[in-house]
Amino acid sequence: MDTALITGASRGIGKSISELFYQRGVKVISPARSELDLGSNAGIDAYLRDIEGVDILVNCGGINELADIEGMSDDLIEKTLHINLISQMKLIRWAARSMRANRYGRIVNFSSIWSEMSKVGRIVYSVSKAGVNGMTRAAAVELAPYGILVNAIAPGFVNTDMTSRNNTPEQIEALARSLPIGRLAEPDEIAKLAYFLASRENSFVTGQIIFADGGFSCI
What global pTM score does this model have? Predict the structure, then answer.
């Protein structure tokens, strides 16, 4: 039985991933925010000291607080980069140790459509997710000789609390109409993609940033 550490599993996409992995026989470790503080080096280090290595790492935890260039505070910059990027790097560093020893591992990071495009208020978030893309490619190249595959999912508009917080109902309706597919994604659809990338069925795909956006990036 493979063991997976999944961050951000308390709601939305992360919760759907955790539930799907459990249903398909994966042993799931899904720490709450009170157990694993992705915004704190000390918190991450303390949590990792208490668990053994894993076969699968899913870096799904993240934040998306809107701010324009003049409005982005030092605190927001540091918090967003730490939670969305630095924590993923630290968890990859930790997971890679046992994965290299076992010569097997699967790592799925979470990026965003806003990593390669953007809009007003997304500067800090876009920077953090662009970093995830670079990290994913670099880690994939370095870890491939050890049987470790590393990919990232870049979701578009998904029916989650985060989408509802950052968009009015009218904006969400307009977004859905504008997508070639004509609707937002459901979290379980993203979870199925994550499961494939993290499973033993995936034996060759690595270093990819997969845009799951209903065609948004094509228009």
Answer: 0.95
